[in-house]
Structure formats: C-alpha cells, structure tokens
Amino acid sequence: MASTFSNYSKEELLKKLKSQKTIAIVQAIVILLMIIFAIFSTMENGLSFQTFLPLFFAPMFFVMIFEVKKIKKELALRK
Fold first, then answer.
1. Are 20 and 68 in contact (CB under 8 A)?
2. DSSP 8-state assignment for residue 6
C-alpha cells in the first residue's frame, strides 16, 4: 500500500515537514499552558471543565507527531 505522502515531491515534503513541526511545537506549548491553568483552576475551584480540557487536545498533538514521523520516513526512503 502506498503512503499518503508518496504523491508529494521532495520539496513539498520538506515544506510540509517544516510546517508540521512548527504546528506541533505550538500545540505542545498550548497544551502545556492548558495543563498549568488546569492545575491552578483545580486548586482554586476543585474539579471543573478546565481540569479535563487538556485531555481533549492531547490526542491531536500525538497525531501531529505521528504525521511528522511518517513524513521523515518517506523522506528517508527517497534518499
């Protein structure tokens, strides 16, 4: 079965890799801030919606990391 990235040129893959890495870093920072906010919110008000909010966004971060690994694997196959 062909990879979803097999249709891209090498330059397009490099560009996509760079943008995916940037987005992953931004997502990591946002999730970290959400975790910090959730901790302080829980200490102040007890359990609330903010306590569990980072759990909803964490899977998106892991999917982004998985995509970065797939792009790197496709680039390695082309070298």
1. yes
2. T
Q: Residue 61 in contact with residue 24, Cβ under 8 Å?
A: yes
10/69 Cα distance (integer angstroms): 15
CA distances from 22 to 25, 37, 51 (A): 5, 23, 26
pLDDT of residue 69: 94
CB 68 within 8 A of CB 21: yes
Average pLDDT of 22-37? 95
State if pTM tops 0.85.
Answer: no
Say whether 3 sits in a helix, a strand or coil. Answer: coil
* Residue position matching structure tokens 């680039």: 75
User: What gap in Å lies between CA 26 and CA 47, rounded to an integer?
Assistant: 26
